[in-house]
Amino acid sequence: MTAQARLTVFSPAKINLHLRIVGRRPDGYHDLETVMLPLEFGDKITLELRKTGIRLECDNPDLPSDDTNLAVCAAKALDDERGVKITLKKRIPLAAGLGGGSSNAAAVLMGLNQLWQAGASQEKLDKLAAGLGSDINFFLRQGAALCRGRGEQVEPVPCRLSATILLVNPGFGISTKWAYESYARSAAGAPAPLGDVTQLLRALAANDLDGVAKALHNSLEVPSIRKYPVLQLLKDALRAGGAACALMSGSGATVFGLFADAKAAERAAGLIRDQFGPSTWTQVTRAAGQ
Ligand code: C5P
């Protein structure tokens, strides 16, 4: 049998329906309790065997394609003596709270494990992922999950959410480091009101959109909205357009709305682009696997 020379893999975006900061850790990171959903929308990655060297080509010039790119870091972490050309079709906005870099790293780890026939166990992949960043372990599990610790402790949860999801990005990025530091500095650094994660998990499993809407929470939202008030305006526009609820995803700047009606989501996307101008990016999608 000839060995496979090329593999194309999907690299989904994610949203956080719940992100509660539980405390500060001695290593400077924050302990979290977060519920994340992988989406049908994402990037495409093609992996092609090369004799030597790990090379990345990306259609977005704003993304570094050198050793600092998480996709390259992931390949090197798996085996820095083998060769691959990674071609990344980037659709997920950068520094957007949608997990694009982490998702690419997880897709490269899983794809190269197959293409290189590296034989890494799930446990080994989990260990490599945790060393590379906070959300990569979540993407390795390929389903909705409740994540704890820095985000690397992943517990899969049942999700039957059929709502249409409208993502809206204002056209600028927010650095994850800045978002956490601002949270720590601000009055929001006091213990966050408990977003009820149990209620959220129950509602997700039952496809109860009203229940999900009541339980959304993001500790990082208040400081980000204080600095970028347009995020609140975008959330208001999502609600006005018919979303049952709206929230900032992760460390922002993307906000999302959950819609019972797919047509209303499409209409709201058009209205928001008209109202907020050409730098505003929108994407209609759904939770993956629904
Ligand atoms: O792990 P990742 O590279 O995505 O994190 C980027 C930055 O976000 C970290 O350097 C840290 O400042 C902050 N962070 C945090 N607590 C987390 C995740 C990220 O403070 N749980």
Topology diagram in text:
Blueprint: E1 6-24, E2 30-50, E3 54-58, H1 70-78, E4 83-89, H2 100-115, H3 122-132, H4 136-141, E5 145-149, E6 153-156, E7 164-169, H5 176-185, H6 197-205, H7 209-215, E8 217-218, H8 221-227, H9 230-240, E9 245-248, E10 255-259, H10 262-276, E11 281-286
Parallel strand pairs: 1-8, 3-4
Antiparallel strand pairs: 1-2, 2-4, 2-5, 5-6, 7-10, 7-11, 9-10
Bound molecules: cytidine-5'-monophosphate.
Cytidine-5'-monophosphate (C5P) is lined by residues 29-30, 32, 133-134, 150-151, 176-177, 180.
Question: What labels would you give this structure?
Answer:
single chain, 290 residues, alpha+beta, Ribosomal Protein S5, domain 2, Alpha-Beta Plaits, 2 domains, 7-stranded mixed sheet, 10 helices, globular, binds cytidine-5'-monophosphate
Describe what you observe in this structure.
The chain has 2 domains: 6-156, Ribosomal Protein S5, domain 2, CATH 3.30.230; 164-286, Alpha-Beta Plaits (2-Layer Sandwich), CATH 3.30.70.890. It is of the alpha+beta class. Helix content is 35%, strand content 29%. The chain starts with 5 loop residues before the first strand and ends with a strand. It has 10 helices and 11 strands. The model has no long low-confidence stretch (mean pLDDT 95). Helix 1 runs parallel beside helix 2, helix 1 packs across helix 3 and helix 9 (230-240) packs antiparallel against helix 10 (262-276). Strands 1, 2, 3, 4, 5, 6 and 8 form a 7-stranded mixed sheet that branches. Bound molecules: cytidine-5'-monophosphate (C5P). Residues 29-30, 32, 133-134, 150-151, 176-177, 180 line the site of cytidine-5'-monophosphate.
